[in-house]
């Protein structure tokens, strides 16, 4: 057989190149909404039809088709559903409390997200890893019915083992536990915590692949970056905090990394549960329903503070939802935009929105770490700073250890916090979850925290950037060119 085919292998290779290249190029041209992305992929495929097509198959198809649990209404029936519906924020309530421009933000959220802005929530800010881990472990230890945990990184270190032991203990006392870890994030520690959890009786799985042999193609580049824990359908935790001891002052002292997490109760818990339950169903096929996973009615009154919306985004039907919310927020700002982000690589649309706001007289302050855990990303960020500094925005390098927090507050009234970084991966490739928070007390508390950080930060100036050696500036720009793939 091989002897028969051997004289024709150039023809076979040509036909294979034509078939793979044409298929991949047509798919890219028909499905990519960003013209630069489409041109880039088509160019790679034309230059190398077989290798380019394989690369596109692995890293270029950034849309997962899956059925989703749209929102909490999927989980609620009868009287309970009617009770939750009474907490939905109305246009009139938002306009009365926050003004017409934030009522417009509510309309935007209603149209681009899968979840409703609800009243009657509470939110507490956990400003250190030790605070967050302590509160989460306390909730696990007090669980009576169910725990649903989704995270990007769950290390098998001293903090990770504490969580694993607490989850195993919960299973032993009869609590139903489900743990979902991203397939990439599960590789951050060797051996993985998966074996420890499974040996202890915890039902655990990985998102979008398996840890040993490789990721689920053609979606190998897509990850869940969400951090959600829901306990007994009554309290939830979300934000930027992974489970790893590098964020614990107990183990790393003053050198530990910083981050911010949030504890919430109220109607938003049901929406966070719906997001994590949809991811669990995608990974395992199991529906989390029935009395075990029942969402408890809020203990607060409808219409009471705080108004919160869960904003889920990712490469499925919710693609670029976080990007749309950020664009809307920047457009309504009148006084201040305060941003804290560890990886600040916004696309041209977001940069233009920030520049336009600054030119309107809005004070735009962007805080990034002085010390970053990803050197290449930090250099690419630096290569982009001049675009903002030339147009009235201010950039600050925060002193101290690396800070992983993702915080945004506008005019001391509207906040956007959660797992999304302002970089191409978070805005287009990762599954993320954030909270849109309309509450003056919460937003002003965030502003005060950011202002304290700025007070000890080093301001980045155009002069300081231009005084760096040419070779360093050139390297920054080269790395910036590759920023969509970092």
How many DSSP E strands?
17
Overall average residue pLDDT: 89
Major sheet summary line: 8 strands, mixed
Report the oligomer: single chain
Structure description:
- Its EC number is 2.7.8.-.
- This is Cardiolipin synthase.
- Keywords: Cell membrane, Lipid biosynthesis, Lipid metabolism, Membrane, Phospholipid biosynthesis, Phospholipid metabolism, Repeat, Secreted, Transferase, Transmembrane, Transmembrane helix.
- Could be a virulence factor.
- It is a multi-pass membrane protein.
- The chain has 486 residues and is α+β, with helices and mostly antiparallel strands.
- It has 3 domains: 50 residues, no CATH class; 206 residues, Endonuclease, Chain A, CATH 3.30.870.10; 165 residues, Endonuclease Chain A (Endonuclease, Chain A, 2-Layer Sandwich).
- It is 44% helix and 17% strand.
- An 8-stranded mixed beta sheet has the order 10-16-15-14-11-12-13-17, with helices on both faces. The chain has a 7-stranded mixed beta sheet with strand order 1-9-8-7-2-3-4, sandwiched between helices.
- The radius of gyration is 23 Å and the shape is globular.
- The relative contact order is 0.12.
- About 1% of the residues have low confidence.
